[in-house]
Design brief:
heterodimer; A: 185 residues; alpha/beta; Rossmann fold; 6-stranded mixed sheet; 6 helices; 6 strands; 33% helix; 23% strand; B: 388 residues; Methane Monooxygenase Hydroxylase, Chain G, domain 1; Pectate Lyase C-like; 3 domains; 12-stranded parallel sheet; two-stranded parallel sheet; 22% strand; Small_GTP-bd (chain A); GTP binding (chain A); metal-binding (chain A)
Chain lengths: 185, 388
């Protein structure tokens, strides 16, 4: 029995998924997590460190690691890469000036070997703000089409403020991870 | 999840204990403890190779069928043991139970294999065309035999002998491997890169095309969002009505005064020098980067300040403001007035001062003591309420 099949078996039993939320500061990672968990999103301080949320989604248990995006703590992101099943990259679609930064950080992240098997969900957040770029435009700016063909990825427009698009994104992510890791029951 | 696991365990136990349940439920059998007791008694006697018929009747139930069955079992066990012992002492195999004879046998086989290995090597050196495959296979077989011999005798061999003979075997295997790879190197399985089938020119074209595409995409220019940019020595005023404006940008301003009335969603501030910024409530967040010698009177749900130097911030904030790579920044409560500011603040859920403006997180100062990069502006040095 290969190691992979053992890991698969363990995961199948637990039906757990580890999801890493990353993105530049001010992109709305914590707000997304709290919104999807049905919590109050009106008072959220910039994340100093990280938050972990465990929630049940369909028949799976999601462990969501929401890691702070400030520049000073981005170098710690790599401490959270291990065993990540799903990667959520959150983009502030209204922050046009820092899209280059955003692309640079995402490219760096995708080079990471430990994340090579993770499904990638790109949330084009803040769609409710007038003047925000559409998911298609964000995909163009981030040049997502040029990504490694083996990567499972998808971009979804959302608004953590209204909650729109969040479930669509997570539905895709959870289904995609499930189809990779768990045998259909 | 846990429950499922528990169930599985309990099912396993049931399956294991099922025969016992049956035997217990049948009244014509002796109780379980007695059976166990007898078995325990039997174990040492069979191991010591002693017939123990006396034990069989000891404490037995009077049931004659049980007695008969038991006697048969004892007999079977002792026969089995006898046959094992007699097998072991079989005179035709002298290696048994003697380290010396084992070592002799082992060394002989080892030498035989080694000599045939060198022979094969010599043959392959002198005549590379000769087919040595059967020879190699034979050697591999005899190494396996040798391994088996060690395994069979390991129970009485001293640990040192077991280890050293296993080492010898693995050495032999290695030598055989190297000889095999030398004699018929292509037979060994390995992953190989298939040569690219595409002709070279096609490849370069695609690479060029990709690069061109990349250039095009990296130069993909997005439209600018509304805002004030690249101004000097000006008073810039803007009034927002309803939700007409989402984000607003202030960038590259020097010696300017900016007055933004009304609610809006988000504010980006970048590269300001000696400016005064007064804004109505921002429903989302404010991001301030690279400012120097400025005065801000702003209200927002979230405020992030990066690379700020010698600036004062009069804030109303729902959450903790943060600073990063900043120095000499001072904080005070929001002081702004314009027509309809109360309703704007209410609308943006910023009507009470929660006092968060004083709870600044410095991302480069993670110690319990006060960060040297920021301070609270003393009352005496604060400005009066600003009317715009």
């Amino acid at each position: 029995m290969g190691l992979l099949s053992i890991i698969r078996k363990i995961k199948r039993k637990e039906k757990e998924m580890r999801i890493l939320m990353v993105g530049l500061d001010n992109s709305g990672k914590t707000t997304i997590v709290l919104k999807i968990n049905g919590e109050d999103t009106s008072v959220i301080s910039p994340t100093l460190g990280f938050n972990i949320k465990t929630m049940t989604y369909d028949k799976y248990t999601l462990n969501i690691w929401d890691v702070g995006g400030q520049k000073t703590i981005r170098s710690y992101w790599r401490n959270y890469f291990e065993q990540t099943d799903g990667l959520v990259w959150v983009v502030d679609s209204s922050d046009l000036r820092r899209l280059d930064d955003c692309k640079f950080e995402l490219d760096n992240l995708l080079k990471e070997e430990r994340l090579s098997g993770a499904s990638l969900l790109v949330f084009a957040n803040k769609q409710d703000i007038q003047g925000a770029l559409s998911p298609e435009e964000i995909a163009k700016v981030l040049n997502l089409d040029a990504m490694d063909k083996s990567r499972h990825w998808r971009i979804v427009g959302c608004s953590a403020y209204t909650g729109e698009g969040l479930l669509e994104g997570f539905d895709w992510l959870v289904q995609d991870i499930a189809s990779r890791i768990y045998v259909l029951d | 999840m846990l429950n499922q696991r528990d169930q599985q365990v309990s099912i396993d136990i049931k399956q294991v204990s099922n025969p016992l349940h049956i035997s217990l439920s049948r009244t014509d059998r002796p109780p379980l403890w007695r059976l166990q007791h007898q078995l325990i008694k039997l174990l040492p006697t069979t191991m010591n190779d002693q017939q123990a018929p006396s034990a069989t009747t000891d404490g037995m139930s009077t049931d004659p069928t049980i007695q008969r069955k038991h006697a048969a079992m004892i007999e079977r066990l002792s026969n089995l043991h006898q046959s094992r012992v007699s097998n072991k002492t079989d005179p035709k195999d002298p290696s048994f139970e003697s380290t010396k004879s084992f070592l002799l046998l082992f060394t002989n086989s080892k030498q035989a294999i080694e000599s045939s290995l060198t022979q094969v090597q010599q043959i392959s050196d002198t005549d590379p065309t000769q087919d040595l495959k059967p020879e190699l296979e034979k050697m591999s077989l005899s190494i396996t035999e040798l391994e088996k011999l060690v395994a069979e005798n390991s129970y009485f061999l001293p640990p040192y002998e077991v280890r050293s003979s296993l080492k010898t075997i693995s050495d032999l295997k290695q030598t055989l491997d190297s000889v095999t790879s030398k004699v018929k190197p292509r037979k060994k399985f390995s992953f190989k890169n298939r040569p690219a089938k595409k002709p070279e020119p096609a490849n370069t074209i695609t690479i060029e095309a990709i690069e061109n595409e990349r250039e095009q995409q990296s130069s993909y220019k997005v439209k600018d969002s509304p805002g004030f940019r690249s101004k000097e020595n000006e008073i810039l005023t803007k009034e927002f009505k309803g939700s007409e404006i989402g984000e607003f940008v202030l960038s590259d301003l020097t010696n300017c005064e900016v007055r933004l009335r009304g609610c809006f969603r988000t504010l980006f501030i970048n590269r300001l020098k000696n400016c005064k910024i007064y804004t109505g409530p921002v429903l989302g967040s404010i991001l301030i980067e690279e400012v120097e010698g400025c005065l801000f009177v702003v209200a927002s749900h979230q405020i992030r300040i990066h690379d700020a130097k010698e600036s004062d911030f009069y804030l109303r904030c729902r959450s903790r403001p943060i600073i990063e790579r900043s120095s000499g920044v001072r904080f005070a409560p929001y002081r702004l007035c314009y027509d309809g500011i109360e309703s704007d603040l209410r609308e943006s859920n910023l009507d009470d001062d929660t006092g968060s403006w004083a709870n600044v997180d410095d991302f480069q100062w993670l110690r319990a003591v006060q960060s040297p990069n920021w301070s609270i502006l003393p009352e005496s040095q604060r400005i009066d309420t600003v009317n715009i």
